Batch of 4 targets.
Target 1
Amino acid sequence: MKIILCGKGGCGKSTITTLLARAYERAGKNVLVVDSDESNFGLHRQLGFELPQDFTQYFGGKKGAYRVFDDKGRVFDEKWRISDVPAGFLAGEDRLHLLAIGKIAEAEEGCACGMGFTAKKFLENLETDKDDVVITDTEAGVEHFGRGLDRFADVILMVIDPSYESIHLSEKVHDMGEALGRPVFFILNKADKEQAEMIRSAIRDKDAVIAAVPAIPEVMMAGLRGEPLDIEVPEIGTVMEKLSAYM
């Protein structure tokens, strides 16, 4: 199963990605987290891993990636699996690994289009077995839809925090996912009971809300301290139950 996590900046995409990845690992799944956010340098710390080498470098950097894909049309000549990813570009342990597509490291180095192109081709060519879960953490907003990344997901999860901007963005995400023929579900995050009710009442597709994760002190403190996040959250189990139909 391939999952894409999206939402506005600061809504908690990386936190939900980490909680979901750890939960699937505990459930015995083979989990690959794909970090496709070129501006966020915190996901690897939440997972408790070192930041792996940018996967784009495997193809010679951003410009090299374009040349490789233009010449071959795909990363490899045939479909490939998680085990085919070169070990030097993975961080992790046992059943849980992290792949970082690429990061903006220097001023004026140029746009991240090559990284987005690499992420798209990676998901396009990747085949999963029944016990594989691939979770892609995207950049803020909807640019990944424009890049075509979401076409290669089995399901799209949007994280919604208590803000008008998140509620408004949910309509755009729902419509774009529908246009691609991909199911879209919403996870409310950092919302108390009153806020969750307000968000539900404002969302057009109320049935798409599958969980409401409250603000959890342990999660907040781990984020503040830059510590790994491995906490069992009941609401994440609810998300997994809903997604079981797409395994």
Target 2
Amino acid sequence: MSLKNLFAIILAIPAIMAAPTAEAKVAGREVLACACANAAGETKIDGYCQYIAGGNVEVDGRDYCFPAATWSEYMETRFTDDFCPGYYPGYTKGVCKTVSVCPLIGDYQKIC
């Protein structure tokens, strides 16, 4: 390989890296966003949501934890009736809502 070809390849790398991937064009898909709820229907996710690679989304005026990474799509197994009262006293019920997520970067996703 000549030095000229090597130089051309090196110059092309930033353009290749900046090009949108096919993954970025994928339409949104549905996942479960969950929280712990009290008797009044108020929800809590603070602290624990970020610990399990979740992100905050507001649905019907309440905060829910959605999977902010593809490998964290297990919210319904975390925010359960068994877990909630011990972590958030007074918030005894695990509740979930369906939300749409779109790809972000790598394994990460965002609300569409």
Target 3
Amino acid sequence: AQKAGLDTDKLLDTIGKGAAGSWQMDNRGKTMCAREFDFGFAVDWVRKDLAIAFAEAEKLGADLTVTKQLDGYYQEIQENGGNRWDTSSLISRFKKK
């Protein structure tokens, strides 16, 4: 949206009123667009919990392929100094121009 020069406040308002509306959109949309990630559950804690889930899944023989991909994204955020950023920091993987 920012690359296209769209007004992100208007975009979030419009999308948030439709099927794409969610708690995350309502409460983190503007901070995500502003690249502010100091508000919620830290990436370090997410990855700790995911490690527990992976251990249990292995015991049960469950396939968590998509969750492992997500964990890899959070690992990238940690490697770039975002350990204490919240879960909305996934958007930081996209370059802002």
Target 4
Amino acid sequence: MLRSGEVAELLGVDRHTVVKWVKEGMIRAVRLPNGRYRIPESEVRKILEGGSNRN
């Protein structure tokens, strides 16, 4: 599980963009009790392989 900042770095986007994608349902994530997100590595792989529905 990766933090939104780690995902942003891997994808070359801003952390806020990753959070926006999570809130819009474009990336699957787990919300922790502290309100932060953790994103499965499989979601990042899907995006990198072109399997996401991002616009």
